[in-house]
Write a structure and sequence with these properties.
alpha/beta, 2 domains, Dehydroquinate synthase-like, alpha domain, globular, Rossmann fold, single chain, 11 strands, 7-stranded mixed sheet, 387 residues
Length: 387
């Protein structure tokens, strides 16, 4: 995948000046498609009524948030929306991946039905990836589809899960196995919300930022390597650039393959191993980004053993992931036969076909491919990367 060279104003990053609002467009189908939408990136956005000026007027809006985010930001968003909606309601979900299930999803439907919301009601997902995924799934399902807006408040959600229209809940046997492709009307990435993000969540989000370099843009990977300290220090200009470039890469991929028929699968680099970690450990024990980061180490090692990249690239990527505060050693999911437990979980991954596990591998720096690998080779990778 060819990508333009990544550049950034180093002096601005050094001094931490406030970034200007930027827009990345998701183009689906023709340029005039009503499913195409903007991603707005900047500061002081989510509680500004003008941010939502392009959203069609409706009687009712429902904000979906969680117990951690709602006390911080729900009132600001509600105030911004009262200029466009007669009624603005809030439903607050329990926080965490462990609650990404049918029971929690029904809390959204209970609120929609309890408030007699019609098919023009607009849902607003205010939170991280779990809130965004469940709100999108509810929007896709309620009255067979109502509009929704993503207002992601975590780095991981801003660079990945809020963009592209994947919505889902988890099942005990597999992550994100029940859901729908359903695009938002708007994504609002307010960098100010990252100021309250816990350090562990910030590191988890950096895993999804780092992911884009090996699969699509080595210049961006170089930039991340050079600016990781600024990103971890929450420098606003560095964060703005990382979010924008990540969204640009994802937008280009999604625009070519909305429903993951081929190209879009490369965005799951590290996810086959990572989803097995999440399911095997129990949802919420490891953050999604932590599992993906460790999964990228494992996927890179698999790529090396397949003869696609050299040891130097694996070592470089592993060092970067470790510097970001992300685990690089996989957990033991079964003391009796760890590799078999991983394989068992990976066989129910969405990319698996007829029980054959598909992996996103690095086919040379900046390029990715989806392919199978011999079970014996995968076992060797798991044995060498987990302890």
């Amino acid at each position: 995948m060819n990508s333009p060279k990544v550049t950034a104003n180093v002096s601005s990053i050094a001094h931490g000046s406030a970034p200007e609002t930027q827009t990345v467009s998701i183009r689906l189908g023709s340029d005039t498609s009503d499913r195409s939408y903007p991603i707005r990136i900047g500061s002081a956005l989510f509680d500004d009524p003008q941010t939502y000026a392009a959203i069609g007027r409706a009687t009712t809006a429902l904000i979906v948030s969680n117990t951690t985010v709602a006390p911080l930001y729900a009132q600001g968003l509600k105030s911004a929306l009262t200029a466009r909606f007669k009624n603005v309601h809030l439903v607050t979900l329990p926080d965490g991946e462990a609650h990404k299930n049918w029971q929690t999803l029904n809390l959204i439907f209970d609120a929609l039905l309890g408030q007699q919301c019609d098919r023009k009601t607009v849902l607003f997902a205010l939170g991280g990836g779990v809130v965004g995924d469940m709100t999108g799934f509810a929007a896709a399902s309620y009255m067979r589809g109502v509009p929704f807006v993503q207002v992601p408040t975590t780095l991981l959600a801003q660079v990945d899960s809020s963009v592209g229209g994947k919505t889902a809940i988890n099942h005990p046997l597999g992550k994100n196995m029940i859901g729908a492709f359903y695009q938002p009307a708007l994504v609002v990435c307010d960098l100010d919300t990252l100021k309250t993000l816990p350090e562990r969540e910030l590191s988890a989000g950096l895993a999804e930022v780092i992911k884009y370099g090996p699969i699509a843009d080595t210049a961006f990977l170089d930039w991340i390597d050079e600016n990781l300290d600024a990103l971890m220090a929450r420098n606003p200009v560095a964060l703005a650039h990382a979010v924008k470039r990540s969204c640009e890469i994802k937008a280009r991929v999604v625009g070519q393959d909305e429903r993951e028929a081929g190209l879009r699968a490369i965005l799951n680099f590290g996810h086959t191993f990572g989803h097995a970690i999440e399911a095997g450990m129990g949802y919420g024990k490891w953050l999604h980004g932590e599992a993906v980061g460790c999964g990228m180490v494992m996927a890179a090692e698999l790529s090396r053993r397949l003869g696609l990249i050299d040891s130097a690239f694996v070592e470089r990527l592993t060092r970067l992931i470790k510097r970001a505060g992300i685990p690089i050693v996989g957990p033991v999911l079964s003391p009796q036969n760890n590799a078999e437990r991983y394989l068992e979980l990976m066989r129910v991954d969405k990319k698996a076909e007829a029980g054959e596990i598909k992996f996103v591998v690095i086919n040379g720096p900046g390029h990715a491919a989806v392919q199978s690998a011999p079970d014996a080779l995968v076992r060797d990778v798991i044995d060498s990367c987990c302890r």
